[in-house]
Structures are given as C-alpha cells and as structure tokens.
C-alpha cells in the first residue's frame, strides 16, 4: 500500500510539474510561433498553434526596417550599450558600497543603509519629471551616459543590499588574518571578499542587466531623439499604431529582446544558482 501511494504521489507531482511548465512556457512558445506568421494569419480563427505557412518576413522587416530614417537594429545597439554600461558601473559601485556598509564602522552608517533602502519605495514614474528637468539642464538628454546613470540610479540600491547580505556571511576572522598579512581595506576587498562572493556579484550583474534591458520608461522619456531609443520603446514606435498593430513584427522583435536574456542566463546559470541558494559561504 505504501509503495502504491508513493507511485501515485510521484505521478501527481510529475503531472503538476508538467502543467506548471506548460502554463509558464506557453507564452514564450506563442511569441515565437506568432513571429513566423503572416500579418493575416495572426488573426485567423481558430488560431494556429504552429503556422501552416511559416515565413521569415517579420524578421526580415525587423533587420531591414526603419522608423523614419532610424534602422530598427539601432535600437538593439542602444540597448546593448546602455545595459552593459549599467552592469559595469552598478556592479563596481555596489561592491565598494556593500563592503563599506558591511565591514567599516563609521558615523551615520545605519542611517545611510536605511536611506539606500528607502529609495526603493518611490515608484519609477514619480522620478521621471524631476529627472527629465535635471537632465535637460545638465544636457544629458539623448546621451548614453545619461541613460546609463538613470538605469544605475534605480538598480544600485538593490544591488548594494544584495551584495551586503553576501559579505555579512563571510567570517570577520578572514579580514583579521588578511590584516596580519599586511592587507589594507582595499586588499581585503580584492583578495578575500571578491573571490568568495563571485556568485553574488554575478547574480547582481544579471539583475542589473535585466533591469536596464527591459526598462521602458527611462529611454522613452529621456531619449527624445528616435535614433537614441532602446528596444522597448523602439518596438512601440516600429510596430504599434493608432489603428493597427503589426503583431508578427512585434513578436519577432520580442524574440530578439528575449534572446540575449536567455543567453546570459544559460552562460551564468551556475553562478546564479550558487549565488541565490548557497550564499557566499564556501566550504
């Protein structure tokens, strides 16, 4: 009887996992399926799960199409530049700030930590108007550095708290041993802390990349020049309209947006699993 109950439980668990996977992955499948349909096939009833006459016309339009005089692929290049710049700057400052908040003892330390955390309470929309006015006065509109700073300002607080949690788990005895060997604070950070929290740094970098890559409001507001917009607002300009939407073209572009995310996740999967489960303690 026990063996029968075990088999039934495993079968029910397997069915549950399959249902959850189908529920989760079906929108991704539908996105790729729609990207290979013609403009009329998208609206057929009943809808086709797999296109009967698949075509690459949507991908061709995406590669060769323009919004005004701006190539659609320019949006992809803008996304790559701004996202990678955000990853580099946000990760570098997050490592330094999290080390200072975790290991150093100075006045107003807890107040600074609460201030960093409090920045996450403000919705992104609330910051757009004052940020736009500030950027206009500083002449940072329609610049890569301005967009990277905007992305970093929204990504950095969470990254600091995330890495601080990793550093807090490292025994302070390692710092004392490094100090005896002649290391200063920077030496302790580079030679002791960073090698141990590598999974956490990778997880933080992936978070910063995804946050910048998928951000719509900042490039839509701060990039008034069409040629400087990234993929999320670029998709709206290229395939959205007042009376008609090019759904197959939009799904093809969505596949292009999702591809770098999938590649980054596959490459850094091991680091993400280590960083989000095992923490920063190795042994």
What can you tell me about this protein's structure?
It is built from 13 helices and two strands. Residues 278-283 have low confidence and may be disordered. The chain has one domain: MetI-like fold. The longest helix is centred in the N-terminal third of the chain and has 34 residues, at 2-35. The protein is 73% helix and 1% strand. Strand 1 and strand 2 (70-71) form a beta hairpin.
Key terms:
283 residues, two-stranded antiparallel sheet, 13 helices, 1% strand, mainly alpha, MetI-like fold
Outline:
The protein has 283 residues and is mainly α. Helices cover 73% and strands 1% of the residues.
Helix content: over 70%
What strand line-up does the widest sheet have? 1-2
Structural domain count: 1
* Averaged pLDDT: 85
| End-to-end distance | 42 Å
Radius of gyration: 24 Å
Proportion of beta-strand residues: under 5%
The major sheet is characterized as: 2 strands, antiparallel
CATH C-level label: Mainly Alpha
Structural class: mainly alpha
Number of helices: 13
Along the chain, the helix and strand elements come as HHEEHHHHHHHHHHH
* CATH level-four homologous superfamily name: MetI-like
Gross morphology: flat
CATH architecture: Orthogonal Bundle
């Amino acid at each position: 009887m026990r063996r029968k109950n075990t088999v039934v439980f495993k079968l029910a668990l397997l069915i549950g996992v399959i249902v959850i996977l189908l529920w989760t992955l079906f929108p991704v499948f539908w996105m790729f399926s729609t990207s290979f349909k013609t403009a009329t096939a998208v609206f057929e009833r009943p809808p086709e799960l797999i296109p009967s006459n698949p075509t690459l016309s949507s991908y061709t339009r995406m590669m060769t199409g323009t919004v005004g005089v701006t190539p659609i692929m320019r949006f992809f290049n803008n996304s790559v530049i701004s996202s990678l710049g955000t990853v580099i700057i946000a990760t570098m400052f997050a490592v330094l700030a999290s080390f200072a908040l975790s290991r150093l003892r100075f006045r107003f330390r807890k107040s600074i930590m609460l201030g960093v955390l409090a920045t996450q309470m403000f919705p992104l929309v609330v910051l757009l108007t004052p940020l736009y006015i500030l950027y206009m006065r500083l002449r940072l509109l329609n610049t890569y550095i301005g967009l990277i700073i905007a992305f970093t300002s929204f990504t950095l607080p969470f990254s600091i708290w995330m890495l601080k949690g990793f550093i807090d788990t490292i025994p302070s005895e390692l710092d004392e041993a490094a100090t005896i060997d002649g290391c200063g604070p920077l030496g302790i950070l580079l030679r002791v802390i960073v090698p141990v929290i590598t999974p956490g740094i990778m997880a933080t970098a992936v978070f910063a990349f995804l946050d910048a890559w998928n951000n719509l409001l900042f490039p839509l507001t701060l990039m008034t020049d069409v040629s400087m917009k990234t993929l999320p607002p670029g998709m709206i300009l290229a395939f959205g309209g007042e009376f008609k939407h090019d759904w197959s073209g939009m799904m093809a572009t969505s596949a292009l947006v999702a591809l770098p995310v999938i590649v980054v996740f596959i490459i850094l999967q091991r680091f993400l699993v280590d960083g989000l489960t095992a923490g920063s303690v190795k042994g």
